[in-house]
């Protein structure tokens, strides 16, 4: 193919690719160094991870700048685009490897720790694998000493869910732990009923700091300072051995309990359900279990949601704090053709689940849709009056009402059309468009209705934050991406990423008509104000195009 770039532009374009290759090579070198430095240094000081990392980031900054200048035009040949996408994929793979290696080594260090029990026996931390661990420095004559009772309550409530509480008595703060190890043990048992593990009295600051607190302080400093400030500071370690949080002495054990949530997810084998399981499983403060029926597996509980006795038994056995209800008939055409089955799943089952969660004092998050609106006056806030156009939207709205009427501790999360790491392209109304691009046959593609396709990984991130803060979440929340696409625009984006022609796709700007079309709204953009005002600090900035560049390559 003859390049339509000027010679100077072509030359600078290749400079861009050279920088890209150098950055990728730098990341590979860093990954290898991360592996071998541990072997060379043993458990000693690791080679400067961030110093080398900053060098590769310098190259990344240059390539991103040059890419902005020379890669923003559509005149670059598709072959060059494919080369660039491939290089970026390799570069991202190296960065992922580096992050994983750093995390794995950090976790392995935690499980290598040891501590001395009051009787002189050694306690090996390798017994804590797959456990959530709360480590606390304690004292018997402190204003915070009543927290012993709260810690024991936390231990009793969550020990069967994998929580381990470890107490390290210390006399470094105001001399408030003067007794012997036997004195401390007797005091804690008699006054606070403590049954969790207490260790031999030791230092948590200074030259004689015990190795557990040396490690924890290094991994979770506060404003760059590692020093423990007073009795009853707390460190939370997840099931992978990562130090995920540090709490001050002021933090009550009950506050930490809010970070220890048991979650049950319906529709866990589906696109959104899988993303939720992936996200929550990697969060040490959440214990998550998934339900599925037609696509169940060894990792999921098989349960027919239409079987009221079966689902009641599961909920009573699991005792979840929060149930996230993803299962639904989401296909408007199928819903229209089988209204009875759709109403049973989308409405009756939802109401029943809400009632069952109320019976055990739990909360429910119901996943709803932007299709509860008619699409005539976007963007829609949570106070706007719904007016669904099709049966699917009507049953989802009825499901919302069934959920809120049966349980005051309920949250309705409305989302638009979803996409993500599908098992097959037909799993999402977004990815199914890829088939039309690849077929290369003339095909009309809707260019009438605006959609706001949203990544399920981003929804899972949002749900993680909502679950942990459910007590302050309003009853209805809207969550959506901010990028508008028609189906035609999505398909053309796929063609560009794949380096395929799109001229066989015909933009259809006419409003769909007829019963077969199943009325769909023109623009159901959801205002995110209700979510953003919660200030949950979620990182959900992955764009539509960025995701599919990685996914399709």
Automatic annotation (TrEMBL):
One GO biological-process annotation of the entry reads:
S-adenosylmethionine biosynthetic process
What GO terms are given for molecular function? methionine adenosyltransferase regulator activity; thioredoxin-dependent peroxiredoxin activity
- Give the organism's phylogenetic lineage: Eukaryota, Fungi, Dikarya, Basidiomycota, Wallemiomycotina
Catalytic reactions on record? a hydroperoxide + [thioredoxin]-dithiol = an alcohol + [thioredoxin]-disulfide + H2O
Pfam families on file: GSHPx (PF00255), RmlD_sub_bind (PF04321)
* Gene3D superfamilies xref list: Glutaredoxin (3.40.30.10), NAD(P)-binding Rossmann-like Domain (3.40.50.720)
Spans traversing the lipid bilayer: 12-35, 47-70
Family membership = Belongs to the glutathione peroxidase family.
SUPFAM superfamilies noted in UniProt: NAD(P)-binding Rossmann-fold domains, Thioredoxin-like
This protein is called: Glutathione peroxidase
InterPro entries xrefs: dTDP_dehydrorham_reduct, Glutathione_peroxidase, GPX_AS, GPX_CS, NAD(P)-bd_dom_sf, RmlD-like-bd, Thioredoxin-like_sf
Q: Which terms in the GO cellular component ontology are assigned?
A: methionine adenosyltransferase complex
Provide the alphabetized UniProt keywords: Antioxidant, Membrane, Oxidoreductase, Peroxidase, Transmembrane, Transmembrane helix
The RmlD-like substrate binding domain is annotated at 262-533
């Amino acid at each position: 193919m003859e390049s339509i770039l000027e010679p100077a532009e072509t030359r600078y374009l290749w400079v861009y690719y050279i920088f890209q290759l150098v950055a990728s090579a730098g990341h590979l070198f860093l990954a290898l160094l991360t592996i071998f430095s541990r072997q060379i240094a043993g458990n000693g000081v690791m080679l400067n991870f961030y110093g080398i990392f900053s060098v590769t980031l310098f190259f990344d900054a240059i390539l991103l700048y040059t890419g902005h200048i020379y890669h923003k035009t559509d005149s670059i040949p598709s072959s060059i685009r494919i080369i660039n996408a491939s290089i970026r994929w390799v570069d991202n793979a190296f960065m992922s490897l580096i992050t994983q290696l750093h995390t794995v080594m950090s976790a392995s260090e935690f499980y290598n720790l040891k501590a001395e029990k009051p009787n002189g026996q050694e306690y090996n931390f390798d017994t804590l694998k797959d456990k959530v661990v709360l480590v606390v420095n304690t004292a018997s004559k402190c204003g915070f000493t009543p927290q012993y009772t709260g810690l024991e309550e936390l231990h009793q409530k969550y020990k069967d869910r994998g929580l381990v509480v470890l107490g390290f008595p210390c006399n470094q703060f105001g001399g408030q732990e003067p007794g012997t190890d036997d004195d401390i043990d007797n005091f804690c048992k008699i006054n606070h009923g403590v049954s969790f593990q207490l260790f031999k009295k030791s230092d948590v600051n200074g030259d004689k700091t015990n190795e557990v607190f040396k490690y924890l302080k290094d991994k979770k400093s506060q404003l760059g300072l590692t020093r423990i400030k007073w009795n009853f500071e707390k460190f939370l370690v997840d099931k992978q051995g990562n130090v995920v949080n540090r709490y001050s002495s002021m933090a009550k054990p009950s506050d930490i309990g809010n970070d220890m949530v048991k979650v049950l997810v319906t529709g866990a084998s589906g696109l959104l359900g899988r993303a939720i399981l992936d996200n929550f499983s990697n969060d040490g403060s959440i214990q998550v279990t998934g339900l599925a029926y037609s696509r169940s597996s060894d990792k999921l509980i098989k349960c027919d949601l239409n079987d009221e006795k079966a689902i009641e038994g599961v909920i009573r056995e699991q005792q979840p704090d929060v149930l996230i209800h993803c299962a639904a008939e989401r296909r408007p055409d199928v819903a229209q053709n089988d209204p009875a089955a759709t109403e049973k799943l989308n409405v009756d089952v939802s109401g029943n689940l809400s009632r069952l969660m109320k019976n055990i004092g739990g909360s429910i998050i119901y996943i709803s849709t932007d299709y509860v609106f008619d699409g005539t006056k976007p963007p829609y806030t949570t106070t706007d009056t719904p007016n669904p156009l099709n049966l699917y939207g009507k049953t989802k709205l009825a499901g919302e009402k069934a959920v809120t009427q049966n349980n005051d501790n309920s949250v309705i999360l409305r989302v638009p059309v979803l996409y993500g790491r599908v098992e097959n392209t037909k799993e999402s109304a977004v990815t199914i468009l890829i088939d039309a691009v690849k077929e290369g046959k003339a095909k009309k593609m809707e260019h009438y209705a605006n959609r706001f396709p949203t990544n399920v990984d981003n929804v899972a991130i949002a749900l993680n934050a909502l679950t942990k803060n459910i007590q302050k979440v309003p009853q209805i929340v809207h969550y959506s991406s901010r990028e508008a696409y028609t189906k035609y625009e999505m398909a053309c984006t796929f063609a560009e990423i794949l380096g395929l022609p799109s001229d066989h796709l015909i933009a259809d700007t006419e409003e769909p008509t007829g019963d077969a079309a199943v009325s769909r709204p023109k623009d159901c953009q959801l205002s995110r104000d209700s979510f953003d005002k919660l200030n949950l600090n979620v990182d959900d900035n992955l764009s539509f195009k960025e995701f599919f560049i990685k996914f399709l390559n």
